[in-house]
Amino acid sequence: AKPVADAAVLELALELASDGPLDGIDLQLDAVVSALEWEREAMRFAEVVRSSHRYHLLAGVRGEDATVRVRLPVESEPPLWLVELSLQSEPALSTQLANNRILFGPRTQDTIVSSGTSLGIAVSPLAPTNDWEAELTRIEQGYAAFTGQAPPVLFIGSSSIRGWRTLQTDFAGLPVLNAGFGGSQIIDAVYFFDRLVRPVAPDTIVMYSGSNDIAAGKSPEQVFADFVAFVDAVHAAFPETRILYISIASSPARWAHRLNVQRANRLIELYTQTDERLAFIDVYTHMLGEDGLPRPELYISDQLHMTPAGYALWTEIVRTYLYEEPSAVR
Predict the structure, then answer these.
(1) How far is residue 228's CA from residue 222's CA, in Å, rounded to a whole number?
(2) At 299, is the secondary structure helix, strand, or coil?
(3) In the predicted structure, residue 72 carries a pLDDT above the cut 90
C-alpha cells in the first residue's frame, strides 16, 4: 500500500490477493496514521497519531484494477507520515447475519487508538557496536594520503563498502575515499563522526549501512532514526554536503529479514524526499530476479557479500547520481 497525500486525506490503494474466493470473508484493516517530527536535542522522533480507524473491506469491493481504495482522514499534512497497517480476516457481517448478502464497503467501525496519542522512536544508544579501533586506524591511514586534494566523495558504511576495492576506477575522475568497515551499523558512523567524517569535510557522502542493524534485531523505525541522526550530524557540521543512501539489499543469507528491510528502506526513502541534499538510491529491486528472489550471480558463496557482478551493478546505478548535478539527483 502506497500512501498518497492529498490535502488532509491519505488514500491507500490495496490490492487483495487470495488463493481462494473472498466471498463471506471480512478483511479487517487497522490503519494508524502518524506524523513524525525530529527532535534534535533528544535524538528521537516525536510520533503523534493523527488518524486511527478500523475498516472492513468486504468481499466484492474492488475497483477495475483489482484494488480497494481507503481514504484515511488526518488533521494536517506534515512532511513525513508513518502509516501502520494491520490486516486480519473474520467472517463477513453478511455471513454472520445469514442473509446471504455481500455488503459493499469499505466501512469504518471505530477508532482503535485515540488521536493525539504520542509515541517515540529513539535513536540507538550512542555507543560503538564493537571494538573498531583497528579498522578506524586503517581508514585514517588512507585519509593521510588524501590531504590537500579536493573535497572527497566519501563512501561510508559496512562490509559492502569496505569490499568495494574498485572505487577509484569505477568512479574515475572523482576524489573518492573508502571509509567502510565490515560489521558496522549506522550508529557507528554517528559515534565516530569526528574520526570518519569531520576530518575530510566531504562534498558528498555515499552510505550503505542498515543490513547489519536489521540482522542484529533493530526495528525498521530504529534504523530509520539512526540514519536521521547521521544526517543531522553531517549537516550540523557541513550544511551543503549531499548524502546519498544506498538502499538495504535483501541478500539470500538475510532473506528472512526482507519485510523489515523493505520497511526501513521505505521510511528512509520518504525522508530523503523532504530534503534536496538527500537522495535514496534503490538497489534493492535491481538485485532481484524476475521471480522476485535475489539474483544468485550477484552474491559470493556466503550468500551475503557481493561478486564483481554485484559491484558492477551498483557502480552503474550510483554513477548516475555522482556524475549528475545535484538538481538532477532525482
Answers:
(1) 10
(2) strand
(3) no
Where in the chain does DSSP place strands (E)? 4-6, 9-15, 25-39, 44-58, 67-73, 81-91, 107-108, 118-122, 153-157, 176-180, 204-208, 242-246, 278-281
Indicate the DSSP class of residue 103.
-
Cα(268)–Cα(92) distance, rounded to whole angstroms? 37
Is the distance from CB of 252 to CB of 292 less than 8 angstroms? no
Rounded Cα distance between 188 and 168, Å, is: 24
User: For the residues 218-240, what does the mean pLDDT come to?
Assistant: 93
Q: Where do the domains of the chain lie?
A: 4-121, 133-328
Q: Tell me the residue type at 95.
A: T
- 3-class SS shares of the chain: helix, strand, coil, % to 5: 30, 30, 40
Structural domain 133-328, CATH architecture: 3-Layer(aba) Sandwich (3.40)
**All three cell numbers of 158:** 559496512
125 upstream amide cis, omega within 30 of 0: no
Half-sphere exposure of 24 (CA within 13 A, CB side): 8
Tens digit of each residue's pLDDT (9 = 90 or more) over 89-143: 665 544 444 444 444 455 565 566 666 665 567 788 889 999 999 999 999 999 9
CA–CA distance, 66 with 70 (Å, rounded to integer): 13
In terms of Cβ atoms closer than 10 Å to its own Cβ (0-12, 13-18, 19+), residue 217 is exposed
H or E stretch including 97? none
- CB of 13 closer than 8 Å to CB of 2: yes
- pLDDT tens track for 192-209: 999 999 999 999 999 999
Q: What are phi and psi of 258, to 5 degrees?
A: -60, -35
Q: Which residue has the cell 562534498?
A: 203
The amino acid at residue 24 is G
